[in-house]
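Action item from last week, closing it out:
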Amino acid sequence: MTDNRMAGLAMIAGSAGVIITLGLHPSGHGLFAPETFDSAARTLIAVHSLALATFPVWFLGACGLSRQLDAPAGSTARGRWGFCGLVLYGFALASMMTGVVLDGLVTPGVARKIIDTTGTAAEGWKIALRYNGILDESFVRVFLVGSSVAIVLWSVSILKNAALARGVGFFGAILGVATVVAQLSGQLDRSPHIFGMVLVGQAAWFVVAGSLMMRIGEASNLRG
């Protein structure tokens, strides 16, 4: 199996993991009722653990994509757009990983404290929960901007050297720029559901790009 084919599979598998995580993500309301806490906490931890396992796979795919974009098959020219995109994407995933840990692994522990304590102590843990949520949202915003700029850089590289189908480049550039504009204008804060739509859009971009990467790998095998 060629490197391009493995990278394409990683991009598709990572995207599938993200979509599954979004679909299974619980509301979290059961965390604050003693009779439902245990099952709700287990579900929240399991879903976010899946997300954490998905990120390295997604990043492996991004490494292969960046390498292909900077040195496409049959070309002697080397670029740096892919590598720059990879650096930003790694930074974005690190931020998202922190947000996932706060939301899925820290929240159940704080919720347990709220259930087990009363009076001013419980109020203090409620403040801690809200602070935890603010931190989570902040790390998610960093991810949205960083990952979107990375996809724009990769898309520009695709449009410049035609390493993949140009339609992927146009789609990625539009998606990335629109996401950054929506975040900076506050639209994402006013409409939290847009975050899920952005993630689905990014996953779709990775699936299409990954499929094209796999075709490059198949073509290389045939030539070999």
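Closing note: The mean pLDDT is 88.
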